[in-house]
Amino acid sequence: MSTPLDARILGTGIVSRCMALALAHQGLQVGLQARRPAAAALLAGPDTPDVRTYALNPASVALLTRLRAWDALPPDARTAVLDMHIQGDAQGTLQFSAWEQAVEALAWIVDAAELETTLEAAVRYNPRISVSAEPGPAALTLIAEGKLSEERAKLGVTFERHAYGHSAVAARLVADRPHQGLARQWFRAPDIFALLPFDRPQAQVSYGLVWSLPEAQALAWRDAPVDEFEQALNEVTGGAAGTLRLASERAVWPLAIAHASSVCGAGWALLGDAAHLVHPLAGQGLNLGLADVIALDEVVAQRESWRSLGDEALLRRYARRRTFGTWAMGQATDGLWQLFSCQAPALRELRNRGMGLVDRLAPLKRWLVSRALDV
């Protein structure tokens, strides 16, 4: 006979696998859904390689290290961000440095597909995790199916979603000079262009691209001839990162901000994109999901011996821990997008002057980075 489950997890992405591993490390029996996530829902089509990269903060890296997944990643699948330069749409600039913040790195850029593969292997070899098409009954059901979660809808939870009318273009690029661990971002009305230093496909000279554009433009650039696309890349950057060329397929997905009307109830809780979505301009989407895992793992570990895993009062502790962090990050990213999407000349001048002011205020810069390092 199979061992009764303590928790069942719906969803097979990074957040769900990390949650399964965390609970298994506590000695709990976990059932995990076997169906792989639908990459086609995020990317350009079912045959498109996953070209996404994630920016992980130290809290997320610490979780992956504890779950023995971080050190299992190939060395070239993770790259430290040592510095970050942000350029406004005029003369405004903002610079961050790991050295100034007294941290090893501001973030680590990780190959999305490689991280999923590594976590899948960790789950497969954990004896406390059973993987099946539909996990059996358990005291606690955790829903990490992503933004299109069907189980969330069955619970009567609404997902308040506001589309930006923009989509993100993702790709891998190669430059003709080393990135030196420097991430670059250009805030341009109405688009936002980010280069994330990476070591694939070529060590020291590669980048992950995330380019947020109005939807029609994003689709046009996805399908544009390679030479036209490369010309556009180099016009945006002005040679700051060297000459860039395309080194992968291009993928596109729509952008939105969203949050669930409730993240828990008796016997269930939401995690990751099933609970919240934010604009990728700060690279915090996956970090928010992994912060959910950390919080729920701690709540379960600290529960009273007599309290069931599905106790609603217990799960409300998790909700309280996550309410402010997810709300604050959502407001911050949305506020920045709203600020830089407006093309009014007076606001353009104000926002660029504001960037310069923040750049000169070291205590404020340290506070901003501290928020991003631990969401």
TrEMBL record:
It comes from the Bacteria. GO terms for molecular function: 2-octaprenyl-6-methoxyphenol hydroxylase activity; FAD binding. InterPro entries: FAD-bd, FAD/NAD-bd_sf, Ubi_Hdrlase_CS, UbiH/COQ6_monooxygenase. SUPFAM superfamilies: FAD/NAD(P)-binding domain (SSF51905). It comes from Vitreoscilla filiformis. PANTHER family: UBIQUINONE BIOSYNTHESIS MONOOXYGENASE COQ6, MITOCHONDRIAL (PTHR43876:SF7). Signal peptide: none annotated. This is 2-octaprenyl-3-methyl-6-methoxy-1,4-benzoquinol hydroxylase. Residues 144-329 form the FAD-binding domain. The lineage of its organism: Bacteria, Pseudomonadati, Pseudomonadota, Betaproteobacteria, Neisseriales. Pfam families: FAD_binding_3.
